[in-house]
Amino acid sequence: MSSLLNIYNMLLNYWGPQNWWPGETIDEICIGAILTQNTTWNNVERALQNLKSKHLLSISSIALAPEETIEECLKPAGTYRRKTQYLINFSQKIVSQLGKIEKLFLMEPNKARKWLLGLKGIGPETADSILCYGGNLPFLVIDAYTLRLGKRMGWLNSKTKSYENVQEILQRELPKDPQVLGEFHALIVKHSKEICRKRPRCNSCFMKDCCNAGKQNIY
Ligand code: SF4
């Protein structure tokens, strides 16, 4: 089996840099990471645009904004009432306990992660997106695409389930470099949307020779 770093290089050579995470400021990246749960990025962009048009695209302004105003802005992002609660709570906790988000990224990384996971509505995927793309800290984001590709390729076996377990297995083989880890997650998403889809296009996949499922013609 090819090493994970070889796979990373293959993906990068084929797809090129994905320039994640979209966002002009650290605040915008973190807000986007919370809003993207269970929806498409297009919907998140519409919600971000609504916040921007009301001068609310920052953690400090969301912390002080009326709930109804945030709800109105987040409508395109789905489950907007719940997301409003999560976003306001996140913003208020950042402001009241840390002052600003940059302080979170100065904490010991695992403590910062634990702090985020203690907030309502912030699970491991969202926490790691905030830490990796917002804070430039070495955490690989694991999502459903990672699990599916990992099992097909043979990096993970069918019993590997827990988020932290998967993350540990994959990070063990990759440099502890936030740029590499952030790019790798973005490339997995790209490859999974374009080729290794629900119904994978193995015959046109450049990774077929190093993929368990591809070599066995499972699909
Ligand atoms: S060979 Fe098939 S299963 Fe393997 S990565 Fe490519 S598309 Fe996915």
Tell me what the structure shows.
There is one protein chain. The chain has helices spanning 4-15, 26-35, 41-53, 59-64, 67-74, 80-98, 101-106, 109-117, 124-134, 144-153, 163-171, 178-194, 212-215. Helix 2 crosses helix 3, helix 3 (41-53) packs across helix 5 (67-74) and helix 5 packs across helix 6 (80-98). It has two domains: 4-18 and 141-177 and 195-215, no CATH class; 26-134, Hypothetical protein, domain 2 (Endonuclease III, domain 1, Orthogonal Bundle), CATH 1.10.340. The chain is built from 13 helices and no strands. The protein has 219 residues and is an all-alpha fold. The longest helix has 19 residues, at 80-98. The protein binds iron/sulfur cluster.
Task: Outline the secondary-structure elements.
Blueprint: H1 4-15, H2 26-35, H3 41-53, H4 59-64, H5 67-74, H6 80-98, H7 101-106, H8 109-117, H9 124-134, H10 144-153, H11 163-171, H12 178-194, H13 212-215
Helix pairs in contact: 1-12, 2-3, 2-9, 3-5, 5-6, 8-9
The structure holds iron/sulfur cluster.
